């Protein structure tokens, strides 16, 4: 490093060579001007093991990916830290890191997505107004001409779709900004299934699909959020509804997984006799914005966020989600939720 140092000394970007324990072997002038005496302290913290996990500095030593970049909060500002090279000349390995202050960019990004989330949220009000009106007309005693009632039902279906899209976008923005938390209340899974099935029963009936649910008695309680889990199951059922032909079957069930006679997990399954998912697409359906090439039978395209959100909900409950699917036969989504017992 001796030769280029003279040059690096005067670069406007803070650069430092740091060992795994957080010791600074070299730093340029900009680093000193930006972080001064505090640097030694926060680097020591960055290197320390926190609750069994290593700090962010450690990542630069274990990751062999040369393009490692992470955003780190240092004294109220966000820095994008780049590893520009490994330095293995001295006693202990070290890395050369460059720091770029991205606080402004981050704030601007956040403001933009807050703004979008707000607008999307505000769309919900008028849309529920429309839904209420349609609901009222369709349930009123007045005898409607078949043509009109078909058209109104179509409008109702489209407004449901729009509401789903809005809710997915809102959940997604909550996940992205880290505001996605799950309540910790004792819940009955049987009730979750019942609520989810009830809310889609009329949609299924309209499309002539049998939607049934079954679960054993004494399904134990788990800890989590009724609302979020119901939403996850609704999400899975509405996917099944999109890909299952008329006269098809969607069954929703819960089973108890035991170990030494004690309930260990509750396994919720949503199985349909639909079009299935291609084997090579099975791995990627959880990713955000991911949709398979298969065209849905009804209800057009979604956001591709549904399964991503379901996965976040299940993982926030300490559970896992998996899928089994055969093209042309059907799909089975499996949510496994651990039963937490008092110690
Ligand atoms: N039950 C199912 N049957 C067939 N394909 C499915 C099923 N569930 C999900 N998929 C596939 O996975 C993709 C991702 O689902 P999702 O994340 O809910 O997004 P979206 O419903 O908005 O398309 C869907 O577009 C579809 O291709
Ligand atoms: Mg979906």
What does this molecule look like?
The protein is α+β, with helices and mostly antiparallel strands. It folds into three domains: 2-101, PAS domain (Beta-Lactamase, 2-Layer Sandwich); 104-180; 182-343, Histidine kinase-like ATPase, C-terminal domain (Heat Shock Protein 90), CATH 3.30.565. The chain has helices at 2-9, 29-35, 38-47, 56-62, 103-139, 146-176, 189-206, 226-243, 306-316, and strands spanning 15-19, 24-27, 49-50, 53-54, 69-74, 77-87, 94-101, 185-187, 210-215, 222-224, 249-259, 262-272, 320-326, 330-338. It has a five-stranded antiparallel beta sheet, sandwiched between helices. The chain has a five-stranded mixed beta sheet with strand order 9-11-12-14-13. α7 packs parallel to α8 and α8 (226-243) packs antiparallel against α9 (306-316). The longest helix is centred in the middle third of the chain and has 37 residues, at 103-139. The protein is elongated, with a radius of gyration of 27 Å. The protein binds adenosine-5'-diphosphate and magnesium ion. The site of magnesium ion has 5 residues, from α8.
